[in-house]
Structure prediction request, 177 residues.
Amino acid sequence: MTTFVLVPGGWRGGWYFSALADRLRSAGHRALTVTPTGVGDRAHLTSADVNLDTHIDDVLAVLAAEEADDAVLVGHSYGGMVITGTADRAPSGVVRRLVYSDAYVPEDGQSCWDLTTDAYRDAFLAGAAADGYTVQPPPGSDPRVTAHPLASFLQRIRLDGTGLRAVRTRDYVYLSG
Prediction:
């Protein structure tokens, strides 16, 4: 049995991975979905202080609370930032593998802002115009998406490489065209 921890991309909560989590569980695995602070059913916790570190801490807390070890972290889009930081900060033996699904794969000092396209940078700025610290979801999105903390897109990741050296495998899945 493998423990999978599923981290969604921007604007999405754990519900994004519901179908995949169900399939993994029916195959005998453990599947944990994460909703980052300030998003989805945790939108009420948003503030100008919620950033990438907050989301990394969210996943570390799930790993600790669930006593996970040898886990596979799966990150979609912005979730790639989160799983990279989580793996780097997790205690040795907690994270075995990283799976990036159409995700950002940051190096130390990079942010989602640095790695994304001009179109997304424009969307981040336009989406944050209402309150200055949350980015409204793109038009036509799933009705369950919520505003996303701007600081999480802007904050540069801090990696010292310690935890990442313990990760045995990194996989990259590209589903978009």
Strands lie at 3-7, 30-33, 71-76, 95-101, 134-135, 148-149, 169-173. The helical segments are 18-26, 52-65, 79-89, 112-115, 118-127, 150-154, 162-166.
